[in-house]
Each structure stands twice: as C-alpha cells, then as structure tokens.
Amino acid sequence: MNGKQNKLSEEKVEESRNIFLQLDKDCDGTISIAELVEALKLMNQNPNEEELNQILKEFDKDSSGFLEFSEFLQIVAYIINESNTEEELLEGLKIIDRDRDGIISCEDLKLFLTCVGERLSEDEADNLLRDLDPRGEGFIRYSDLIRNKASVK
Fold first, then answer.
1. Cβ proximity of 15 and 80 under 8 Å
2. What is the CATH number of the domain that holds 74?
3. Is the pLDDT of residue 140 over 50?
4. What are the counts of helices (DSSP H) followed by strands (DSSP E) for the chain?
5. Considering the domain boundaries, does residue 90 fall inside one?
6. Do the beta carbons of residue 97 and residue 103 sit within 8 Å?
7. What is the pTM of this model?
8. Which residues 6+ apart lie within 8 Å of 95 measured at CB?
9. What is the pLDDT of residues 21-72, one digit of tens each?
10. Would you give the DSSP letter of residue 50?
C-alpha cells in the first residue's frame, strides 16, 4: 500500500467531506473504524478485515482508532487511485488479448513485457510468468491477474 496523497478534484473532496460529516455523529472531527467501514460502503468499497487493518496501519497516523478528515481524505485518494490502476490494467490486458476471450497466452504476455513500456528482461519476465502461471498451463486469465495485480506493478 502506498500512503502518498493523490490529488482529488474539488468535487471529490466536497463529496468526501459530506460523507465524513454525515458519519461524524458526535461532531468531534473524527470517525470511528465502524464509521469508516460505513463510509467505504457508501463509496462502493467493501474491504475485508485484512484490507481494513492495512488501511488503518497506513493511514491512522496517531494509531488512535479514529480518523480525522485529513486521514480519511488520504484513504479516499488511495481507493480512487487503486480503482484507476485496476481499470488501466484491464485496458492493457484487452490490448494483449487478441481474441478477447479473457485469457492471455504466456507467450503473448512475455512478448508484451519484454518489448513494450518499461521492458523486463527475459529472466524477469520468466520469473513473473512463473508466479502468474504456477501450474504451467501456458495461459493467464484476466481475473487471476487482477487478483494478483500487486505482482504486476
């Protein structure tokens, strides 16, 4: 997880402020962890317990168990950035998937990884493909890549 703050539009900041204020029932300028979960659900996010703990570890700077608006805003920026990254990954996969069946051959992916963008060496590509195709099937499904997107970053 990356704690860098991403730039949010004024509209998204205002929307986040409204959600925060709605959930800050005692008007003390903080929301509880339970309220954070509620806020995330309002943003169509449903983190599991492990993801929630990671978010708290990363963004609850004072380890109080409560989030101030600035901490909450960083979480919103992180979530938006992660969503965009997943969309970008899917778009990239569609380019590689010639027959558009949701499956990419390891051969095509290796060619892409070693020839386009920030190119990997043959060894780096082979290592990545071993991780992504541990059963040696010779192909990778989009859904598997999305689940393991941290491996491709």
1. no
2. 1.10.238.10
3. yes
4. 8, 4
5. no
6. yes
7. 0.52
8. none
9. 998 988 899 998 888 888 888 877 878 888 888 888 889 888 888 999 999 9
10. H
